[in-house]
Amino acid sequence: MKFKFNFRKIAILFFVFATQLILAQERLVTGIVTDDTGMPLPGVSVLVKGTKTGTQTDFDGAYAINASPAQVLSFSYIGMKTQEMPATTNKVNIKMSGGSTSLDEVVVTALNVKREKKSLGYATQEVKGEDLTKVNSGNVANSLSGKVAGIDIKRNNNIGGSTNVVIRGSSSLTGNNQALWVVDGVPLNNDNTNTSEQKTAGNTGGYDYGNAASDINPDDIESINVLKGAAASALYGSRAANGVILVTLKKGNKTKAGLGVTFSSGVNIGVADKKTLPEYQMEYGGGYGGFYGTVNLGGGVHPYAATDDASWGPKYDPSILVYKWNSFYPELPTYGVPTPWAPVKKTPNDFYQHSLTYTNNIAVAGSNENGDFRFGYTNYNQAQGILPNSSNKKITLIFLQVTTLVQKLKYLLQQIT
């Protein structure tokens, strides 16, 4: 018996069989995972799609996992977009970018540790930095008003005055009820330390020079998280019994590789709301009833107006000449000069003026494999307040530098807590 071989078909079958063996063979795949600035990302979850095989990146963002060329690797990290990459080569490097959907579910808790909001056993609320700079009032505490539930902002209306921040109401009649401010892990005492002895020559009252939270520049803030309740603030001790306001400052790792320069400028114009001001009648003069008599001060015999603080005096009549209060003092040029009995042209409401505030901010940030930095300069100039002869000028300088070692320690702390 003779056999006839088709060598072409045999070759094709052999090639397909060999290819399937290669695709099915697993081998070690390694790589490094970084963010969009090139910084290594520790703790990234690496999973072979469709299997239970997975691992995590180390402090340097490196990983190693067994996968065949036909399989797909899935990379996921809190605050980053999940990415997939086929394992066709032995080395697969990934650059991950931020995802707005994931970031909305992550908040900064005690010790600057990021956690998913739904996993927390206490109440917390986040305010983004851009929401604090839309209208710069000169005090970041004032900008929190109306943005966080359960927080009471008690502000002083004078320029540069203190602002008290109380969470979930007052718990003490005589003690301090203010929340504790923590800026990048550093506690900040926001108590009002002004006393009545803070005076200047010729004055008998004290001055309100503001409190520490007003020194925080809103342009340097990335986010604010308000922690409510004892469970949220336990790590900060008794000082945080009234809640904690966690301030996270902007870092250089949010910029692209190299130097990044940002600039912002704003003008704020303030106007007194006339609907909230009292209305003054312009039909009757001061006093109770009619004129108090007549007198001759050199300008003839004329009635003189009352000095009582009341609005029930004689009805205004410009044809009547009257000696007013400034007609009785020899030191004044109006001494002995009668004037028409007519209403004044301006009321106390005209005392208010338009306020004008300029805010200019410039920041330089950068990052590389050794760390990141950010330098910020802000010039806040309230050149004209809503009250005459009032102004407020403030210059803020900030320099933040984070090395790779510090970032690794933060990651280690997250794993421990």
Give a quick set of tags describing it:
mainly beta; Immunoglobulin-like; five-stranded mixed sheet; four-stranded antiparallel sheet; 26 strands; elongated
Characterize the structure shown.
This protein is mostly beta strands and 417 residues long. The chain has 3 domains: 7-101, Carboxypeptidase-like, regulatory domain (Immunoglobulin-like); 105-249, TonB-dependent receptor, plug domain (Ferric Hydroxamate Uptake Protein, Chain A, domain 1, Beta Complex), CATH 2.170.130.10; 281-346, no CATH class. Helices cover 10% and strands 35% of the residues. It has helices at residues 7-24, 100-103, 140-143, 230-233, 404-416; strands at residues 27-34, 45-48, 54-56, 62-67, 72-76, 83-86, 94-95, 106-108, 114-116, 124-128, 151-155, 163-167, 180-183, 186-188, 221-227, 244-249, 258-270, 287-288, 294-296, 301-303, 311-312, 317-322, 339-341, 355-368, 371-384, 392-403. The longest helix is centred in the N-terminal third of the chain and has 18 residues, at 7-24. The termini are far apart. The mean pLDDT is 80.
Distance between the termini: 79 Å
The overall pLDDT, averaged over residues, is 80
CA-based shape: elongated
Rg is 36 Å
Biggest sheet character? 5 strands, mixed
What percent of residues adopt helix (DSSP H or I)?
10-25%
Low-confidence stretches: none
Task: Please outline the helices and strands.
Elements: H1 7-24, E1 27-34, E2 45-48, E3 54-56, E4 62-67, E5 72-76, E6 83-86, E7 94-95, H2 100-103, E8 106-108, E9 114-116, E10 124-128, H3 140-143, E11 151-155, E12 163-167, E13 180-183, E14 186-188, E15 221-227, H4 230-233, E16 244-249, E17 258-270, E18 287-288, E19 294-296, E20 301-303, E21 311-312, E22 317-322, E23 339-341, E24 355-368, E25 371-384, E26 392-403, H5 404-416
Parallel strand pairs: 1-7, 13-16, 18-21
Antiparallel strand pairs: 1-4, 2-3, 2-5, 5-6, 8-9, 10-15, 11-12, 13-14, 15-16, 17-24, 19-20, 22-23, 24-25, 25-26
